[in-house]
Structure formats: C-alpha cells, structure tokens
C-alpha cells in the first residue's frame, strides 16, 4: 500500500506564520503563543494533555484524535526539536516534551549537526542530515508500511513542498492570531493551488481548517 506523506494539525496565524520570532527555551514558538495557536485542539475531548473531563466533539476533535492514526514515523526540523542553533552546546537537551513525547514512533530530526539517536519511552529521535528525498526514504522504511507525518516547522514543510514530496496537508488557520513576523508557511494558501486541491472548512471554534490533496 502507498505510504502517504502528511502534514497534520499544523497551525498557522491568520497571516500565515507557523511560529513567531525569537524562539527560546521559555518561548518555544517565539513571540507567538502556542496556547492561542492550539486553543482549538486543546478544547477537544481527544486532547492528550487534557486534565479535566469533557471537551468538545466535532471537526476539531476529529483532527486532534486523528493525529496518530496510521502514522509510522515523523520528520521534523531541528528548530521544532529545540531552540539551539549551530553545533550542539547542550547534549542534555532532549526536546520539549519530557519523558513521554507525543510521537510514539521513530522521529527524524533534520539537522546539519547530527548527534547520536536516543529513545524516550516509545519515541526514538534520529538526527539526520540529507536532502528531503533521502530522509523521506529513511522515514518510510522506519514507518513499516504506515504513513509518514511531516511535523514542521514551516521551513521543513516548505522544503518538502518545494521537492514535491507532500501528499496531503491539513493546516489549521487561526484568524484571531496575527503575528506579522516569524517563520511563514505562506502569504496565501492559493500559492499551492497549481499542485493541490483545497477545501476550506470553518469550525465553530473560529479556526479554519485547510485540507490539501494532490491534483
Ligand atoms: N504551528 C505549528 O503547528 C508548529 C508545528 C511545529 C513546530 N512549530 C514551531 O515552528 C518553529 C520551528 O520552525 P522553523 O521553520 O523555524 O524550523 P524547522 O523547520 O523546525 O527547522 C529548520 C532547521 O532544520 C534543519 N534542516 C532543515 N532541512 C534540512 C536539511 N535538508 N538538511 C539538514 N538540516 C535541515 C536546519 O537546522 P540546522 O542547520 O541548524 O541543523 C534548519 O534551520 C518552532 O518555533 C516550533 O515550535 C510550529
């Protein structure tokens, strides 16, 4: 069966940014507030970090619940993994997610500064330097027949779009958030219409789900 390469639940501001400027340990999304970018998912019944019972059902919940469905590996950029740049100064940094990362599969972190792999619970992080097609081949093999999630950030997604390696993409646009600067996925989703079909589905939460699939 064909293994899809999927972007899922990637949140962008109304003006198309996946993160703000000035990322740091204290501010994983730079000047953007991840709480407001992901309020739509956090309010759902399926949000994995939910501490109180309840939560919404419906479209936002469907996407939140579907995040891990049939995914066998993730590819992410080095800036999603953490705030360090250049050669690793702090090898103790093992990502933002603590001892139980939410991936539960092999994760391939794209970087020009590879370091040894390590495992936290059921997630193994591999650090790979290579062009998108080569890294995708590694991720496909690790996924053992299941799909590969492209986890972001915007730089990595753009790189895979430019290489024409993305099959489907779900982007949640959050109109209430305007960032003005940062890492941008698009100026307008129309940029992708030469290669993708697009269906735009507003949710009662205020986010606007954008669903792309290849022409
Ligand atoms: N909105 C969302 O849903 C969402 C999702 C995920 C992440 N984020 C946020 O987005 C931000 C990160 O996004 P970003 O666009 O700045 O960066 P990114 O895509 O996470 O990472 C880009 C970096 O990855 C490395 N890289 C990319 N392609 C490579 C290749 N082919 N070979 C080797 N290395 C490669 C390079 O790092 P080096 O050269 O330094 O190694 C590059 O600077 C963070 O703030 C994160 O929290 C948001």
UniProtKB/TrEMBL annotation:
Which terms under GO biological process does the entry name?
riboflavin biosynthetic process
**Residue ranges occupied by any Bacterial bifunctional deaminase-reductase C-terminal domain in the UniProt entry:** 9-185
Q: Which organism is it from?
A: Rhodococcus ruber BKS 20-38
Q: What is this protein called?
A: Bifunctional deaminase-reductase domain protein
Q: Which Gene3D superfamilies match?
A: Dihydrofolate Reductase, subunit A
GO terms for molecular function, please?
5-amino-6-(5-phosphoribosylamino)uracil reductase activity
């Amino acid at each position: 069966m064909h293994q899809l390469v999927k972007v899922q639940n990637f949140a962008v501001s109304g003006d198309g940014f996946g993160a703000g400027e000035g990322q740091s340990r204290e501010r994983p999304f730079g000047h953007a507030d991840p709480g407001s970018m992901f309020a739509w998912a956090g309010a759902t019944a399926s949000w994995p970090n939910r501490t109180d019972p309840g939560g919404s059902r419906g479209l936002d919940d469907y996407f939140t619940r579907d995040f891990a469905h049939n995914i066998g590996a993730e590819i992410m950029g080095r800036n999603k993994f953490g705030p360090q740049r250049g050669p690793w100064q702090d090898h103790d940094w093992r990502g933002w997610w603590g001892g139980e990362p939410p991936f539960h599969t092999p994760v391939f972190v794209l970087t020009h500064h590879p370091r040894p792999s390590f495992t936290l619970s059921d997630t193994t992080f591999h650090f790979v330097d290579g062009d998108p097609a080569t890294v995708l081949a590694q991720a496909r093999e690790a996924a053992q027949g299941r799909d590969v999630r492209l986890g972001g950030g915007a730089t990595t997604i753009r790189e895979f779009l430019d290489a024409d390696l993305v099959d489907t993409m779900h982007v949640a646009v959050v109109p209430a958030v305007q960032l003005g600067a940062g890492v941008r996925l698009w100026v307008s989703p129309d940029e992708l219409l030469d290669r993708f079909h697009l269906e735009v589905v507003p949710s009662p939460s205020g986010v606007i789900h954008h669903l792309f699939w290849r022409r």
